[in-house]
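Something for you to look into today, if you have time. Just paste the record in under my message, thanks.
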Amino acid sequence: MKDPIDRRPATGTHALTTRSGAVQLFASRRQILALMGLGAAAVASGGFLAACSRKPGGSGSFTDTSNLDAILPTYKPLSIVQPDIPGARPVPDGYLTYPTELVDAITTKPGTSGQKITAMTPWWGPTPPGLGNNAYYDAVNAELGIEVEFSVQDGNTYADKLAAVIGARDVPDLLCIPGWEYPKIPRFSEAVKALFEDLTDYLSGDRALEYPMLANIPTEAWRYAVWGGRLAAVPWPNDGTPFPWALFYRKDLFDELSLTYPTSMEELVSIGRQVTDPAAGVWAFNNIFDMVQMFYKVPNSVGGWGRRADGSVFHKYETPEYRAALEATAHIYAEGLVHPDLVASEGGDAKQLFRSGKILFLQDGPGAWLGMQRDESKVTPGFNMQPVPVFSATGGDPLVWRADEPVFYTFIKKGLGEERTKELLRVLNWAASPLGTEEFELLKYGKEGVHFTRTADGAPAATDRASVEIADQFFFIAGRAPAIIGTPEVPNYVTDLLAYANAMVKYLEPNPWQGIKLEWPSAYSAVIQPTEDAITDIVRGRRPIEDLDSVVTEWRSNGGDVGREFLQQALADAGR
């Protein structure tokens, strides 16, 4: 009988996973990059804008952006290509095939000064060659009519580079900052005011219509680009599903084992026991604690907070749902259902273990799906990963965590003058060109015949040179209207993803702080990681479950209650 589980050694390098998502408080790169946030907000001068922000300082700050519609760009959506599968907002629309007729959306060159533009972006791969040795730069800069010189930095150490350039006040003309990094930068709001151009007078209201691609970015993304009551950056909207996590399973192997996906915790654990076979080198899971929390309907707004019917604020650590999820996950570890290479805090490549059939479930960001399905299908015929629909372990409707904040923000250096700032905005406008435009094809895929060829149906197929020269440089410096695009290599991806996302989006957790931009008190920021480390030890069996009570007590006294008071005040000041 054919062994349905691939017994190949689990070797290989870590693949970049880009997050479909959005950023929660101190969300780690593993969430954001399944892609694929010094102190307080500076008070804007005049009128209601100043009243929307709290004073800077170690006590934290917040800005209610829900009342700032007057400074946000006018939203004017472009109708360039019609979707095949509409997304239930905030799920993006789906396009089964790449459009064959492209529009030349920007007919005049954005660059006019002849003065080189400097930019800095992150990348999770080899650094591409620089100007003069990179055909991608040559092609795009020729279209722009101006040279853009990128400093492409290691995404894994990008926080260090950001701290260095901001600390030295030596920022480039265009600086891309990931949403999960800015909360770590001390006194970031003050840095925004001191180092970056206030874009309000350039982009608020109908002023944005001068930049139609930027005006095509949804309004909710712009809300997050407000600091101190002023528009400070160009956002890069979440370009995938609004969920931080999914639980994938190997449907191809399940079919061969006559199994189906679980619909309850009991079934999840039962299947985990059935497929775990240490003698064959196969286990059920990687770390699925976040998904188990979702199954138990643990709150997760702004990093794990919720609001009761009486208006009081609570943290997930204090709930019976969290304890139940922790106990359930700890039992999964104790039963030996997690691959031993992944039980340690570091070590083991969960993606490769999943691809090679060494684990049959994988918690990862939804953004991991396309690349993994595409790449492994070339190696393993019939490879089929699918998400487990989120279920409730306690009855009733499920709860799905929300992750719909922008992934990146691009800031413009302050003090360059009006004409230079407008030139930079024209470049960002070009880089914000959406699917269906010639500009999008060039910035995303490079030059035809050099960086890509075309498949039989006209879709771009990357060449080896593309992986050397393209590091999403121009793609990262400006967001665009989100779209989920099909590829011939994964023909069912868009249909499967939209079916899952449109079914799950109705269960998105409401966020009591939606529209309130938070910069946390330093005491609360400092207590997060030590507490999570202690909880990881409990989940993985290095400390007893009973220690949760003392961990939560320490968390409260060392900053947790400070966070509670801060969030309570943010709601009160917003009139909620």
